Amino acid sequence: MNDRIRAVALGNDPADLLLQNGRVVDVLTETIYEADVAIADGKIAGIGPRGSYSKAKQVLDVQGAYLAPGLINAHCHVESSMAAPESYVHEELRWGTTTLITDPHEIANVAGAEGIRYMLKAGGQMPINYYVELPSCVPATPFEHAGCVMDAAAMAELMHDEGVLGMGEMMNVPGVLYDDAEVHKKLDLFHSEKRAVDGHAPAVTGKELQAYAASGIDTDHEVMSWAEALEKLRAGLGVLVRQGSAARNLESIIKGVLASGIDVQNLAFCTDDKHLADMRKEGTIRYCVKLAVELGMSPVRALRIASINAAKLFGLRHVGAIVPGYDADIVVFNNLEDLEPLHVFWHGRDAWAEAAGIAPVEPAASLKGSVRPAAFSEETFAVSHFEAGKEYPVIRMLPGDVYTERESIRGENVAVELAAGELYLIAVLERHHGTGHVGLGLLRGYGLRKGAAATTVAHDSHNLIVIGTSPRDMLVAANELVRVQGGYTLVHEGQVVGTVPLNICGLMSSEAPEKLIVALEKIAEQAHAQGVPANIDPFISLSFMALPVIPRLKITDMGMFDVDRFEFVK
User: Fold this and answer.
1) Cβ–Cβ contacts within 10 Å for residue 62, how many?
2) C-alpha 460: how far from its chain's center?
3) Alpha helix locations (H) across 161-314?
4) Distances (CA, A) of 318 to 5, 48, 73, 327
5) In what order do the strands lie in the sheet with 559-562?
6) 3-state SS string over 546-563?
7) What is the gyration radius of the CA atoms in the chain, in angstroms?
8) Are the CB atoms for 282 and 294 separated by under 8 Å?
9) In b/e form, how buried is each residue of 103-130, taking b as 16+ CB within 10 angstroms?
10) Helix %, strand %, coil % for the chain, to 5?
11) What are phi and psi of 240, to 5 degrees?
């Protein structure tokens, strides 16, 4: 701490900013008390009874509002919002988040180190603590072709970049448990510097969980039930309670916490994946706090989980509490029920005003020209690929779920069921290096009538995925995404009826959030009008059809993949 901060704390020098007449939410003792807060050089200099600090360059009378530490989103993928990092940060700041722990896994699968450094530069210029956990599984599996491969050596080149905090979610659980050499090189790299290591262990229990935790994994956000949360807490993992757009696990976990009365020190809140419209409507971590309070948790305890707990789990000193010497990251709430932010300060500065004056970083040309498949034609998607007398697997979509079931059909029946609208062609085109890899398969349950839909948001390698009722419509859709260099598109009887360009790596848009939200809502409405059921998100549902780590049957650019057997369907 510098001499000036001590002088301000003693009342000898004027504060840069004095927050008067506040109610301080103390997350260290889980109490609330009336006080004034003096801020100098971006730090909290002193906290004292009302009137104890009178010297200040600027005074803000908060009139009894609540002063809480800035909120921390303990695990998020900025790309999943489909907004550029600057736009994403605006929405986080709107609701009082002042620290982000991000995993740029999506853009790394497209553009590797260049993509990660773009995220660090764009997000890092904003008035927020913008941290990156380096993606540990690029590509996520060897059963698809991504735009980049990041081994331990590639991670080592990035780990000392400003803003890099630790290692992103380790999805390769078998690699951890059964001594995959490359996986353990990555773990050793971060353990050697005592950096945080995020986990990803859905439904892993028993001895496997014990071995996973013993390997030096610090956290897990893939926790769906209270029983799973309790087992992982007892294994020493920090449980990141997730409430995103698709995965909503908060209620079951917090109800378990309340019923058991356990200490919450190893819990933090996160969103993982949250869409821009949902962020605009309800916020991110503020929404987690609000839900926890509605379930019966005390507001101060919920705010503790949303701030100092996350800071401690990730080794962040001097953030997460309103105490002398900590960064002056403070959110002023109207009350602790509505939790409407009145002001947000980052390092003692007005974060909303500062963010409004920052120009977005212009992505490099390579990041805006990342959709480069090999040449394709109507024949690429032709029904003739399915021969009479042979049996073919069919993906059956489950409404509102990313899981699928497996069915089968004989080749001679494919054309008949396509014509009847009971079956769809689905294809994944490798789009990063022009290799010509194309996986072609069949799918039920999408609902689209006489047309095609396509997206370059296709977890996790983000190839070009297209579904349709005819090869002609699929060709139109795929060509449209090459033309706009990624995004969403919808075709009806050979004509493009809607496109949302995602010009940054085919994942994010440079458009203002207001325009992007409207465009996304419009194309979803158009898809529903073409028959996609209202309980299916037309494009997000498609993006998971190419993810070969979620059961049961999926498709990649290498073919149809049986997740249960962990092998391609021959």
Assistant:
1) 20
2) 12
3) 173-177, 181-191, 206-214, 226-234, 250-260, 276-282, 285-294, 299-305, 308-313
4) 14, 19, 16, 6
5) 553-556, 559-562, 567-568
6) CCCCCCCEEEECCEEEEC
7) 25
8) no
9) bbbbbbbbbbbbbbbbbbbbbbbbbbbb
10) 30, 30, 40
11) -95, 105
CB 474 within 8 A of CB 444: no
Closest by CA position to 136, among listed 36, 217, 17, 51:
217
What 3 state SS string does 459-470 have? Answer: CCCCCEEEEECC
3-state secondary structure of 492: strand
User: 272 and 133 in contact (C-beta within 8 Å)?
Assistant: no
Mean model confidence pLDDT for the chain: 96
Give phi and psi for 482, each to the nearest 5.
Answer: -65, -40
Could you give phi then psi for residue 364, rounded to 5 degrees? -60, 155
Which of 50, 99, 106 lies closest to 78, judged by CA? 106
**What's the chain's length in residues?**
570
The bridge status of strand 464-468 relative to strand 438-444 is unpaired
Q: Provide the token pair at 531.
A: 């028959």
Task: Tell me the CA distances in angstroms from 408 to 405, 412, 456, 550, one per residue in order.
Answer: 10, 12, 27, 19
Q: CB count, 10 Å around CB of 424?
A: 25
**Tokens representing residue 248 in the block:** 């909503």
Identify the bridge partners of residue 568 per DSSP, sorted by sequence position: 561
**Pair 435, 456: CB distance under 8 Å:** no
- Between CA 155 and CA 212 the distance in angstroms is 21
Structure tokens at 478: 């795929």
Tell me the two tokens of residue 408: 């089968």
Q: What pLDDT does 334 receive? A: 97
Q: How buried is 420 (Cβ within 10 angstroms: 0-12 exposed, 13-18 middle, 19+ buried)?
A: exposed
Which residue ranges in the chain fall short of pLDDT 70? 1
Q: What is the pLDDT of residue 1?
A: 60
DSSP per-residue letters across 391-447: EEEEEEE-TT-S-EEEEEEEGGGHHHHHHTTS-EEEEEE--SS----EEEEEEE---
pLDDT at 538: 92
CA angle 174, 175, 181 (to 5 degrees): 155
Tokens representing residue 154 in the block: 């590639």
Would you state the structure tokens that stand for residue 63, as one six-digit string? 């009139």
Residue 212 amino acid letter:
Y
Tell me, what's the pLDDT at 405?
Answer: 95
- The letter for the amino acid at 388 is A
Place of tokens 């500065």: 349
Rounded-to-integer distance, Cα 408 and Cα 331, Å: 55
